[in-house]
Each structure stands twice: as C-alpha cells, then as structure tokens.
Specification:
171 residues, mainly alpha, 6 helices
Length: 171
C-alpha cells in the first residue's frame, strides 16, 4: 500500500509542478500534497518532518524569487522605484489576465505575466516623465526578469519534486 501512496504522491506533485508554468502556486500545492500524505501515513514514517521543512524552505525561496525578479530585472535595466513597482503589479495582473485572454494552454499565464511586468514598468516610468526609450528598456528588463523568475521557480519545483520522489520511495 505504501508504494501506491508513493506513486500517487509523485504523480500529483508532477502535475502541481506543471502549474508553476501557469504562474500558479505549484510549489505550495506540492508541499500541501506531501504534508497530507505525511499526515495520513505518519505511522509508516513515509515522509519525515525534515523533508517537509526542506520543502517549505524551497517553496518560500521560490515565491520570493518569483515575486521580486521582475522588479530586479527592471532595476537592472535602469528603471526607477516606480518602474519596479509597476513591474511587480503588472506581472500579477498580467498573469491573471493572460490566463483568460491568451488561449494558449500552459503559456497564456506566462505570456501575460511577462507582458504585464513589461507593461507595468513602462507605464509607470512614462507617467513619471521618463523618456520612451528608457521606459521601454525598463519594460524589457522587467519582462525578461519575470520570465527568469518563472524559470527559476520551475527549477526549484523540479528540485522539490525530486526530493518528494526520493522521500516517498526510499525505505
């Protein structure tokens, strides 16, 4: 029965991992699924508290990196503080809008997040009186930063998935 739980956990975690590409909280869903199996199979010692702690740290790191990467990308491209705020807010709004407006499975949210981060940075830079070329440069930096953030979070999610798989299958 334990092997069945392990296979189920690994499969569910993989599906959760794919939701990271939708800019959804896939790493948190992986942690929640693993915590649920750990609780249900506590008497079997299937998942240790140390594994859950490691997954929690990774999920927090992924979230923080994703949240601030578009701002950092905008800042590196010369954006002001307002441009960075625009990138952060625009990325969130774009991800939600992209899910519904761009009918490309798995990538509508990603495209929306990157475009929203770029648009938010450009919009607030222009509203603060910055020249169009500098605002556009900040927007490109924000969009690329957001794309890098999703890639980094997906990489963290892959590490989490491997940890879950090893913990579930290890005797």
């Amino acid at each position: 029965m334990t092997i069945l739980w392990a296979i189920l956990l690994i499969a569910v975690s993989f599906i959760c991992l794919l939701t990271v590409l939708l800019t959804l909280p896939g790493t948190w869903l992986m942690l929640a699924a693993t915590a649920l199996v750990a609780w249900l199979r506590w008497d079997q010692g299937m998942i240790s508290p140390w594994t859950l702690a490691a997954l929690l740290v990774l999920a927090i790191a992924g979230e923080l990196l994703e949240m601030f990467a578009s701002s950092a990308g905008a800042r590196r491209a010369g954006a002001s503080r307002w441009g960075s705020v625009g990138a952060l807010v625009g990325g969130i709004v774009g991800a939600v809008a992209g899910t519904f407006v761009i009918p490309v499975p798995l990538f509508g949210s990603l495209i929306g997040a990157c475009g929203g981060a770029a648009g938010g940075a450009v919009l607030l830079e222009l509203s603060r009186g910055r020249p169009a070329d500098q605002s556009a440069r900040a927007g490109v930096g924000a969009g690329l930063g957001r794309l890098a953030a999703v890639a980094i979070k997906f990489g963290i999610g892959m590490v989490m998935w491997v940890i879950i798989a090893v913990a579930a299958l290890a005797p």
